[in-house]
Amino acid sequence: ARDFRYLPVFAEQAERFADRFLAAGASSVAEQEYAAVEETLALERDLEIQEVPPERLDALRLKRIEALLRGGQAAAAATLAERGIDSNLPDLVVQLGLLRARIYSDLGQAEPVLATAGAGAGTDHRRLLAEAHFTRGEWTAAKALYSALWEELGADLPFTDALRLLLAAHRSGDAALVARLARAVPDLAAIP
Description:
This protein has helices spanning 10-23, 27-46, 54-70, 74-82, 90-106, 110-115, 123-135, 139-153, 159-171, 175-184, 186-189. By secondary structure, it is mostly helical. The protein is 72% helix and 0% strand. The radius of gyration is 21 Å and the shape is elongated. The chain contains eleven helices and no strands.
């Protein structure tokens, strides 16, 4: 039987196949498929069958990390994330930072989450950073990040984040912010 793995369209189609598994919740199968595609492309690159840019392999590695995280395998994801990426493409660097923050958050390690802070951190990443500061009792830093998220998200700020902002403001002595937040999110005032 003919081996289709080395046809130019195989990797693209195999990655789509893995994407479908991930979307369906079969994260372990998706991770295995992403790994197989990554391995095939790396072999093609090494054997000079085709030119494979490092960004392509990095993107697959990040998808593997995402699949592991979705499957509750934070320790395995951490091992893969430690490998890092080979390119300096800003989007991939930011994505790796978010994945590392999620890994350490899932593992209950606030300090390494804070080490992932960097330029270009998106909303989800900044939420994890705020949560890490909150967990460590760093009220002023947590208040600053949660306040910035509140400014950005407005009424869409998740209730848990609003509650943590309220507590961080109270514990850092910012009575004006506590009052403003209680008026803006009335459900917070109803909590004993």
